Amino acid sequence: METNMKEPEHTTTASAFIRGQEYRQMNETQRGTYVMGVIDGLMFAFALTKQKSEQRWLEECTKGMRVDQLSAVVTKYITANPDQWHTSANALVYGALVQQCNK
Questions:
Q1: HEC string of the chain?
Q2: Cα-flanking dihedrals φ and ψ of residue 78, to 5°?
Q3: Are 67 and 30 in contact (CB under 8 A)?
Q4: C-alpha–C-alpha distance, residues 52 and 35, integer Å
């Protein structure tokens, strides 16, 4: 699926609640909950800002996927990018989805 998504600029600001390293220390239930929260937040932000094209790619990419599948995609991405473990986990979730959806 071709999209107009770009890789996120990973942030190291103090505003990040959870970073990649903290995500790695979560159990599977916590990871799934976190990933779904980020996805719900993205969907709401796209709807709120009327960015339907951005919302559409995310809906299409995640349609039919279970929470454990989504968290596995994110976990694989974070594990493969140890140089980013210090960055905001929400940006890493977005990066994982961009990578997955561009396949």
A1: CCCCCCCCCCCCCCCCCCEHHHHHCCCHHHHHHHHHHHHHHHHHHHHHCCCHHHHHHHHHHHCCCCHHHHHHHHHHHHHHCHHHCCCEHHHHHHHHHHHHHCC
A2: -65, -40
A3: no
A4: 21
Determine the average pLDDT of the residues in 4-10. 49
The domains of the chain are located at 20-101
Q: What is the pLDDT of residues 9-55, one digit of tens each?
A: 444 444 568 999 999 999 999 999 999 999 999 889 888 888 777 77
Instruction: Note whether 93 and 5 are within 8 A (CB).
Output: no
| DSSP bridge pairs for 19 | 88
Distance CA 4, CA 19 (A): 26
Predicted structure pTM score: 0.80
Strand partners, 88: 19
